[in-house]
Amino acid sequence: MWNRLLDFISSLKLTVICLSLAMILVFVGTMAQVNFGIHEVQQRYFQSLLIWWPSGSHGLKIPVFPGGHLLGGVLLINLIAAHARRFRWTWSKLGIQLTHAGLIVMLAGVLLTDFLSVESFMRLAPGETKNYSEDSRAMELAIIDESDSQLDQVVAIPEARLKQPGAVEIEGLPFQITIRHFYQNSRMQPLDKAGSNAVPAATKGTGSQLAVSEVPQATAENERDLQSVVIEMTSIPASGEAAAQSLGTWLVSDQLVESQAFSYGGKPWRLVMRPQRYYKPYSLTLQKFTHEQYAGTQIAKNFASHAVLKDPEKNENREVLIYMNHPLRYRGETFFQSGFEQNDTATILQDVYNPSFVAPYVACVIVAAGLLLQFGYHFVRFLRRRKTNHAQ
Amino acid sequence: MKYFQTRLLCGLIILSAAIPACKDKNAVQVYRVSKAETESSAPPKAAAPESSGMGAMPPDHPAIGAPASAMAPAAEPSRVTGNPPSNWVAQPLTTMRMASYLVKGENGTSSDISLVALAGPAGGVLDNVNRWLSQLGKPAITAEQLAQMAQHVASPLGDVTLVDIEGLPEGADAAKEGRIIAGIAPVDGKSFFFKMRGNAPLAESQKDGFIQWIGSVRMNETASAPDPMAAAPAAPLPSMPSAAPAVPAAPEPQKEQIKWEVPAGWNAGAAAAMRYASFAVAGQNGEKADISVSVFGGDGGGDLGNVNRWRSQIGLGEVADGELKSLVVPVAGKDSEILTVDMTGPKGRILAGWARIGGRSWFFKLIAPDQLAGSEKAGFQKFLESVQFQP
User: Fold this and answer.
1) How far is CA A148 from the centre of its chain?
2) Domain match, A208 and A125 both
3) Range of A335's domain?
4) What's the predicted TM-score (pTM) here?
């Protein structure tokens, strides 16, 4: 039984099945972009183990097709197994082995990229300094203790955690946060305009005057969801106290442009839903942004950001120039010149962290070396045979 | 076969080692950052544990879990128009800020100026003032104390309750802290917050400009987020009322950026619908002169129609088209000619001027008792002469 399983895992049959399913997945996923948009399709079809149906429902779901991660993972195991099984130290097979090894590196690199890479954006106006970039989709709930005159203490709860109802265990907060309801995409209305049946979204803060409703997720490429979450704060009972007391519910949302202030324990606090931030041990200061256009047109010829990179830990303090096709690579992150704001008031840098970015290059080199070896070996053998035939 | 199993096991172990164990989208982060938006160093870790035991990331490692694809943040158009002092440097807008400026003084001093909006009373005036006081290390005040210290400034957004508070919390940077001059305007179920925070002497020197800016700020109707809750491109909230004055058939001026010099003694008056700006002058015996600036699309009802409407307001009869020419006196503005009339009737006196620029009609009107209007006529004339539609 074990041997039969190993035979199957390392079989060409499994390779063909995986590749066939992958072709179907790519086709179906491409077609699905019409309705769901590229981001949602990537999440549902290619960056998942299984494709579930129905897709948008909260109720019972059944898996209907293997997702990209499952197919890629199985294909990777299949390749490793085949490699392990058929590997022989012979010149005649070395090219094939190398080619397979290259494919393994390629597949593993894709999976690692999916798991590890982070894409975010840093928006800088001239003279502005930032040591964080912001996610363009994922949000976070920031609970900020403003009591210190110099530093704010921030508790940042990522969107993925906000989607899970229940208490959030956070050490250091003097109160308990409990997720009551998460709206992936929501719309708000003032309570007095939301109809007679409307109820306040929360008991405290701005949400006490707003009604919030869930709407279908945004699927177009240039749209995004407006997430909202209702949280409840409860006191943490001190020893001897019977139970925690509710401090009220709060609505925090991507749509609320101002943070909400409250006081607790004699300290001023703020609540805000904001793009997820990725802080860095270094900073970038934009000195100048240039945007050149072809004469007589508004077609961009070049846009470039002159910035100063400061990294106290590494004693870095140097000027950098980031422009089209010439990104800044620093500490494993790559800053691309991505865009700019109207009237060139700010530059937008795309910040990509991808520790496995080198995998495709390595894979290509290995595959190329393998193919060269394989074809070279056969070519040399062919020449020798021909020479022998001529001699005869 | 045994040899194969060993090699397969080795391969899978290497593979599993390569799959990161550190990926955790749920990890709650706790850190400390500088109060300024533009920190220059990494956030030092807080004393509290980093997360709920769901795994931690390396110190210099960005958080994990962003989607592989992402769209660039959309360019954000200005949501308001106004006339900030020339030494204020516009700052990038954020999801919270509808307007943002920085003014720098000597020796590295600076003040930050912002306008944000929030649905509802947003805690109310008193709570917010007390919050600002706490930021400056000052004790909270009562409603009575607030009433004594608050000033009121008229702006196109509505009546603005203005407070000016000073204090330097222990350890604060005096170059960037020390004073908050802030105003709150509750309008149509929303609260608009004007705030200047920074070095105390610098804020003092900028106070007049700050108040004048408040008096000039109006909503940019073409921008995407006139209300405090609709900022993202995908989801405007169409049902939310706009705070912008309702000017029928006249899009909000965006490019004109009209400028003028306000004569001494004119106070920014209460905003009202259909007005671009208002001023008021107090005379003797409680008399008041009301000065308004309005803009309409097209010809704004025509010269004759408007003049006869004004005449009816001061108890005069209508004039015919032929008689109108004898009433009109042209005045040279900075970049255009403004037609004016001066009419006195039993109910008062009206000094009015109008000009048509870029398909819109601008109207400037002063209405007051005869004597007060007469004393303000020279100022009104200078005001018209200072009007610049396209600076």
Assistant:
1) 33
2) no
3) 118-129+279-353
4) 0.53
